Amino acid sequence: MTTATTGSKTTTVLVTGAEGTIGTAVREHLGKRYDLRSLTRTEQPFPSHIADITDLDAIRPAFAGVDVVVHLAASPAVETPWAEILPNNLVGTYNVFEASRQAGVGTVVFASSNHAIGMYELDGAPSLYELSDDRVYDERVEVRPDSLYGVSKVYGEALGRMYHELHGMRVVCLRIGSVRADDDPASPAMLDSVPMPLDHLSREERRRRMRATWLSRRDCAELIARAIDAEEVGWAVVYGISDNPRQFWSLRSARELLGFDPRDRAPE
């Protein structure tokens, strides 16, 4: 694997929430491609700047000398209550963008979520998961969050747009599908991990959903790498799923803008 460089300089990438599922995938798959640095809330078995993203002063030193920030840190559960969403997903996201601006970071890759438009899925399920259904949603549809978690991701996208417009920062927002530590889309653990608004689905309906929404850890890491490397893209919102048999979130922009070509595919 080659190392990405800017001119003759290796690209330095700070990953917030580097201990999480996606952060782990980034470290495993991209550790030889970039000079990776980590920001985590607690001590980890790998080098990391330890600080809470709700504390701007505490996280600021981690951003010094960084080219790109991949912002993953957040409360990840769809059912997360407001008392946690406010500090972790709103205040924390502002702090990451602001610390990036103050440090002169050129690019932020923001881990948004399909839940920014989750109501389309709630309205369409379970027929939306059928291979014969031709409904597809792209980044041009109206935002329709299905939860306070989804609202927090819409907020992060809007914040990123402001930092792009006012401060010239490159911002790529990734509306990520289903990424899990258990990387098998047909495993019982994956089928048990359907978010609460859809927990009424039958086992077979959950399998069909995962056939459409799965994003492998390898493909997720590669999508992030493509967002980092696409220097000509100043602003974008794209979806992230693997090359699945059913796709109701469009990969068109991820392919055309970032050159993303997923390698994995859920079983048909």
Task: Describe this entry's structure for a reader.
This protein has helices at 21-30, 56-59, 82-103, 118-124, 148-167, 188-192, 203-213, 217-229, 252-258, and strands at 5-6, 9-10, 12-16, 35-40, 49-50, 68-71, 107-113, 170-176, 235-240. It is of the alpha/beta class and 268 residues long. The protein has a single domain (5-258), classed as NAD(P)-binding Rossmann-like Domain (Rossmann fold). A 7-stranded parallel beta sheet has the order 5-4-3-6-7-8-9, sandwiched between helices. It has a two-stranded antiparallel ribbon with strand order 1-2. Helix 3 (82-103) links the parallel strand 6 and strand 7. Helix 1 (21-30) packs across helix 8 and helix 3 runs parallel beside helix 5. The longest helix is centred in the middle third of the chain and has 22 residues, at 82-103. It starts with a strand and ends in a 10-residue tail after the last helix. The model has no long low-confidence stretch (mean pLDDT 96).
Name its key features.
two-stranded antiparallel sheet, seven-stranded parallel beta sheet, 15% strand, 37% helix, Rossmann fold, 9 helices, 268 residues, single chain, alpha/beta
Q: How much β-strand is present in the residues? A: 15-25%
- Shape descriptor: globular
Structural class: alpha/beta
Order of helices and strands: EEEHEEHEHEHHEHHHEH
- The number of distinct structural domains comes to 1
Spatial order of strands in the largest sheet: 5-4-3-6-7-8-9
- How many DSSP helices? 9
CATH class reads Alpha Beta
Secondary structure: helix percent = 25-40%
Integer average pLDDT: 96
Work out the radius of gyration.
Answer: 18 Å
Poorly predicted runs of 5 or more residues:
none
Distance, first to last CA = 31 Å
CATH homology superfamily: NAD(P)-binding Rossmann-like Domain
